[in-house]
Amino acid sequence: MTPFHVQKPVPVPLILDVDTGVDDACALLLAALHPQVDLRAVTCVGGNTNVDQVVRNTMTVLDVAGRADVPVARGAARPLLEPSSDARHVHGDDGMADLGWPSSDRHPDGRHAVELLRDLLCAAAEGGPDDRITLVPLAPLTNIALLLRTYPEAAAGLREIVFMGGAAHIGNATASAEFNVWHDPEAAAIVLESAAELDIPVVMYGLDVFYDVRVSRRGAKKLIAVGGRGPAELAGRLIDFQCSRFGQPDATIGDAGAVCVAIDRAGVTTSILPVRVELAGIYSRGRTVVDRRAWSGDLSHDAFVPAPTTVRVALSVDGERYADLWWRTVNVASR
Ligand code: RIB
Ligand code: CA
Question: Which end of the chain is more exposed for a tag (fewer CB within 10 A), N or C?
């Protein structure tokens, strides 16, 4: 019984947009199991693998976590302009470590992802501040761009957007660009522009912190040993797959770090910085151009200032804090 003077914090309403993938699955387990998260829905988009496989992988993970109550909707199959591509070389042929675990016998929500997002966000807008939803895109931003361009009124139901994407300093899909933004640069540019127009607070959880939240293979083996094809075993096998694929003694929890930001903001250090997406570059298309110049100088020569959008860019993270948060949450035999 909680003494009357100690009020338990209200769980944070979250919606994840995913291209489940190994690290999206790590994020889904955290969001599905953490007591401080009120997981309202998961929307799917093509990215790491094709969108239908993303839906299957997502529903498998939610079933393993005992969260068949969470609606899942299929969204965009391809980027707005770019041709489709995938990241099976990173995530396996099925996009989720080729574990071969059983597919769900459930069906996704009959609505398109954009319609489900609109319905949930417009309903949240009718409530009070505690009802506002944190949207956590962990994939190419195609669904989110379509939502904000088609139903801008849905922004009234948003608390903030915490997205995994971009980087201030490095790339992974190319030397210059991070995969989620590189996969659909126009969508990323539209989301940033809409965020400025619609006054949506945005946190960018990019590659500058993405690789710093790591779990050891030894820790993964402990999770696998729980067995029973429950959340712990699945989480352990996802980390073990990455360790094996990259020949490393540990692996990043990737997208799950962005969910950690939504749960425990004190674990990340951010700076509010102007951010643009490069759309025209040959070698730099899809780069997030993060302006870190000290503004004391005279920038009147620069035709591109001020950038229309400023974003809370994650520049450092307490990797151990978030890795421990993830490991403790997923280390359950079943829900
Ligand atoms: O660049 C990392 C991002 O690309 C992650 O979201 C990963 O799942 C892939 O989608
Ligand atoms: Ca992802």
Answer: N
